Amino acid sequence: MKKMMVAAVCLVMFLAGCNNDSKRAGELFQRAELSFASGNYNLAKLQIDSIRTLYPKAVDVRKAGVRLMQQVDLHEQRKTLAYLDSMMQVKQAALDSIKDRFVLEKDTAYQETGNYFYPTQVVEKNIGRSFLRAQVNELGEMLLTSIYCAGGSIHHTAVKVSTDGDLFAQTAPSPDSYETTDLGRPIEKADYRVGKDDGGVAAFIVANQDKRRFRLEFIGDRNYTTTMRTDDVKAIAAVSDLARILSAMEQIRKEQNEANLKLKFVTRKMEEAEKAGKE
User: Fold this and answer.
1) Which residue pairs from 54-63 have beta carbons closer than 8 angstroms and sit at least 24 positions apart in sequence?
2) Which residues form a coiled coil (predicted)?
3) In this structure, how many other beta carbons lie within 10 angstroms of the beta carbon of residue 63?
C-alpha cells in the first residue's frame, strides 16, 4: 500500500511538471509568433530553439514550433530573394552604364564565358609591344598578362610595378607562363590571377593611377624595364572597376541559387507534413 502511494505521488508530480512545461513552452511559443508577425525572424528562431532546449516534454508545443520554424524559414528566404533581386538590378544598371566601353571577345563555338578587354589593349593593336594587359571574364575573374617581346629571351615569370618613389608591387611567379615566336622573334607571356597570383599589382595601379609614371619590370633570367603607357594604366583601372561589378553579380547569383534551394527544401517539408497530417 505504501509503495502504491509513493508511485501515485510521483505520477502526480510528473504530470504537474509536464503541465508546467507545456504552459511555459506555450508562453514562449506565443512570443515567437509575435516576433514572426513583426518580421523579427532571428528572434523568433531563437525563441523556437529555446522551446526545444528548455521544454523537451512539451511535445505538442514543440511540434507547433517546428511548423512555425518552417514558416519563418519560408518568409526569410523570400525576403532574401527580394533583397538579392533588388541588388542585382542595381549591379545590372551599373554594368549597362559601362560595358559599352569594353570589347567582349567570345567565340560561342567553343567558349561558354567571354572576356572583356579595354579597347586600347586588344591584341591587334599591340603586336610587337611589351606591356601589361588586363582582362576580366563574364564571371568577374580578372587576369593580368605580362607580354614581353623586346628582343631576345629572358624567360620571365613575374613582373614588378613601381612609381617614381619607393612604392611598388610585385606578382608571384606565374602559374601559367609560355613562350612562342613570331617570324623568329621571341614572345613571352605570363598570366597572373588578380587576388591570387598578382601580388596586389592591379590594386596598386588603381590606388596610384594619378601618378605621372609607372615602371614595369619583367623579372626572369635577366630583367627588362620599360615605362607603362598612360592608356595601359587607364585600361587596368577600368577593367578593375568592371571586375568588381561582374564579381558582385556572380556572388549575387550564387546567393540566389542557395536561397532558392532552401526555399524548395522548406516548401517540400511543409507539403510532406501537411500530407502526413491528412492521412
Assistant:
1) 54/24, 54/25, 54/28, 55/21, 55/22, 55/24, 55/25, 55/28, 57/17, 57/18, 57/21, 57/22, 58/18, 58/21, 58/22, 58/24, 58/25, 58/26, 60/22, 61/22, 61/25, 61/26, 61/29, 62/25
2) 249-276
3) 11
Confidence of residue 19 (pLDDT cuts 50, 70, 90): low
Please provide residue 104's backbone torsions phi and psi, each rounded to the nearest 5 degrees.
-100, 120
Measure the CA–CA gap between 145 and 133, rounded to whole angstroms. Answer: 5
Q: pLDDT tens-digit profile of 142-166? A: 999 999 999 889 999 999 999 977 7
Closest by CA position to 210, among listed 233, 229, 243, 244: 233
Cβ neighbours for 233, distance < 8 A, ≥ 6 positions apart: 205, 209, 214
Q: What are phi and psi of 135, to 5 degrees?
A: -150, 160
95: Cα within 13 Å, side-chain hemisphere: 18
Question: Would you state the cell numbers that stand for residue 261, as one nine-digit string?
Answer: 534551394
